[in-house]
Amino acid sequence: MRIVLLTPGTGSYYCGVCMRDNALAKELIRQGHDAVMLPMYLPLVLDEDAARGRGEVFYGGINVYLQQKLAFFRHAPRWVDDLLNHPLLLRLAGRFGGMTGGALVGELTHSMLLGEEGRQARELQKLTEWMREHGRPDAVWLSTALLAGLAKPLKEALGVPVLCSLQGEDEFLDHLAPPWRERCWETLAVRSAAVDLFVAPSRYFGELMGRRLRLAEGQVAVVPNAIALRDFEGPEPSGPAVPTIGYLARMIADKGLGILVDAFILLKKRGRFPKARLRCAGAMTAGDEVYVAELQARLAAAGVADEVDFLPNISREEKVAFLRSLNVFSVPATYSEAFGLYLLEALAAGVPVVQPRHAAFPEVVEATGGGVLCDVGSAESLADGIEKMLGDPVAARAMGRAGRDAVFARYGMGNLAGAFLGLTSERIDAGAVRD
Question: Is the dihedral of CA 322, 328, 332, 336 positive or negative?
């Protein structure tokens, strides 16, 4: 089966969705399928070798921006597009992505959701031309519903089904400035009708987006996320002697990093675990540095800064070693997290988790048996959960072991690839009409 996966890149920092899609493409190739991953907007930043794909970036971020703002670039010669799509320029644009915001983000998002009717229509033409010239796929997968504007024109041009992953789009859309927030939600709902199937990583998020996008019955399937397990194989880690709490996600407020910092300060004040340490790793952009500096100042004021490590943008090898250095793990996100790949990574390393009782977290914790829940947004409740884990290492290790067993049994990339292929085959067999 030939499958094209369209995945937006970040250009400058690790993205969990990009890494998941890359691991999925590699697993499909390993199983003998012709999977091609095409980066959108900016180059992919991955923690392992890229799957077979194209170095070329489609819908290059600079071109998308200029075509939105200036009519000239909607009709400029192709060599101008090629020049602006140079990887070095795109990576530079990724580093300064925070320079654009407000109404422009909403305006661009709306234009992209309009697909062939948007101001980036020439980018759509280049994408479909490439697919025709390099072997028309049997199906196209969109890694996010924010690309749903491409579904209708791709189906019409290629005569193949288009499937789409759901990956936390509500958080992005709800933060757009009015009137673009409302316009984008409405346009996405209309454009979603052309998507053959949406795949949500949790029941929670499938039901949420089904309501918000007014999806038809049977238009959403639930397939849990997965990770590549090879680096987590081997003996079960024993954990460090010094009580160590860990965080692995982008270093931003919405992920709950500030709540975890406050919980750590509270834990230290209680005095039961005076040697406890906090280790925070994950993606950090230039724009995130101010927030991290504020947290470091808060820790210094509490007199515990020397007992906290911040480890931004670590490699895959460093990530695995980092997780194995922990006794307990938490990313107390405050928004409607669709799944949380970081939970699978922590559990694969045998580390039990303490997560808020909301969004997809109860599903993951219940399905794996790998942790406990706390109150949403409460540093005190989070500190209680962490203290309980540290105070009963036998029970904590049992939860970590249960979580690890569950991840290896049900959340490996082979599981995701199998479900992915099954759903794709069903949609092909359902009657995609080829030209």
Answer: positive
